[in-house]
């Protein structure tokens, strides 16, 4: 899957459009006007925003919204990898399978199990890129052994 496979509505898009419902309406309108079937993912940061997307889904049965990102809905409970996933679990329950869900934030190899047990459809982890340790390799070419054929 690439960035061109889905429209993702992030917090800055919501701010620029004047609200989450307005952003969803504008993207749905854009896609419909061009006859595009591109799915939409809406980022949410609160349970109220989840409810707003669900209300939009009910009011717009033809929407292209297919996934709700549940961003930073987990909280670290102290040292180590233990998380409070109650907000994330509540968000997944509210969605109730009406569309896909994607958890984002605090996802590491140590927390993936706890987050996955909430019932989310997908997990996205920035740790795959921002916390990676470089592997030092080099490619040495020995031209002394080169012979033309």
Secondary structure layout plus pairing:
Blueprint (H helix, E strand, L loop, with lengths): L6 E3 L1 H7 L2 H14 L6 E5 L2 H13 L5 E7 L3 E2 L6 E2 L1 H10 L4 E5 L7 H5 L5 E3 L2 H4 L19
Fill in the keyword field for this structure.
two-stranded antiparallel ribbon, 36% helix, 149 residues, TIM Barrel, five-stranded parallel sheet, alpha/beta, 6 helices
Number of domains: 1
Largest sheet, strands/sense/barrel: 5 strands, parallel
Per DSSP, the total helix count is: 6
Average pLDDT rating: 90
Shape: flat
Helix content: 25-40%
Give the low-pLDDT segments: none
Q: Can you tell me the CATH class?
A: Alpha Beta
Distance between the termini: 43 Å
């Amino acid at each position: 899957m690439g960035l061109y496979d889905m429209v993702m509505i992030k917090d800055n898009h919501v701010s620029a459009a004047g609200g989450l419902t307005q952003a969803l309406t504008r993207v749905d309108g854009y896609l419909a006007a061009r006859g595009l079937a591109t799915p939409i993912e809406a980022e949410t940061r609160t349970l109220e925003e989840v409810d707003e997307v669900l209300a939009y889904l009910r009011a717009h049965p033809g929407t292209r919204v297919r996934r709700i990102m549940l961003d930073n809905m987990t909280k670290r409970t102290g040292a180590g990898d233990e998380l409070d996933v109650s907000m994330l679990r509540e968000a997944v329950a509210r969605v109730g399978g009406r569309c896909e869900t994607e958890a984002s934030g605090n996802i590491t190899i140590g927390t993936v199990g706890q987050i996955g047990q909430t019932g989310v459809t997908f997990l996205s982890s920035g740790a795959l890129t921002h916390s990676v340790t470089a592997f030092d390799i080099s490619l040495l070419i020995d031209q002394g052994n080169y012979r033309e054929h």
